[in-house]
Amino acid sequence: MTRPAFLAAFAVATALGTAALAQTQPYAPGAHNIALPADWQARFIRYTTVDRPDRKIIRNMYVNPEAFAALQAGQPLPYGTLAVMADQRARVDAAGEVLRDGNGRLIPEPAFIAIAAQQKERGWGEGYGPDQRNGEWEYAVFDPRTGARAERPLNACFTCHLQARAQQDFSFSTWDYANRSR
Ligand code: HEC
């Protein structure tokens, strides 16, 4: 082998080795598995908004377009689903009562005050106990200003979604959207 040919072969072998290493990185349970893509606000589909007058917030529900296109009634949500719930404060009057627009909907203040996410990937969920495991889903919360993942206990996310929605692939609004009558 000539020296350049040897170097080229070496470079290819190294690249393949690095790729193989990245692929065999073992899954470990935890929020670190979920990242909020930098362009999520521009790219994700806002499929519904939920008014929560009880908490004086509006919840904007987004999902990545690949999963949105693959949603099917009666089916588990597709692998690769990343649902993002971004909350806004509702406008209130001087007495602190929520204001409503002409359609009776709450009126959002511009900024997001909380961002929560759930993501489903093949093989995820391994390592959680039966009282916590949500199929192949992971949960995470993000700083609403920076989009950086926030360190927070997530037990309640698993418990509530498990108890209320085990038969709906642990999903609330995404499942309901996929199964609504059209
Ligand atoms: C007490 C029950 C409860 C807890 C705890 C909870 N959720 Fe939810 N979650 C809901 C409900 C109910 C909805 C639907 C929206 C609504 O009605 O507010 C929802 C919706 C969502 C959604 C939007 C997608 C969907 O299925 O509607 C995401 C993402 C989400 N939750 C993530 C989280 C994360 C992350 C945590 C923990 C930090 C968490 N949830 C804790 C009940 C809960």
UniProtKB/TrEMBL annotation:
Signal peptide: 1-22
Residue ranges annotated for the Cytochrome P460 domain, each copy included: 37-172
Keywords recorded for this protein, A-Z: Signal
Keyword Signal: yes
Transmembrane segments: none
Pfam families per UniProt: Cytochrome_P460 (PF16694)
Family annotation (Gene3D superfamilies): Cytochrome P460 (3.50.70.20)
Keyword Secreted: no
Protein name: Cytochrome P460 domain-containing protein
Gene source species: Roseomonas fluvialis
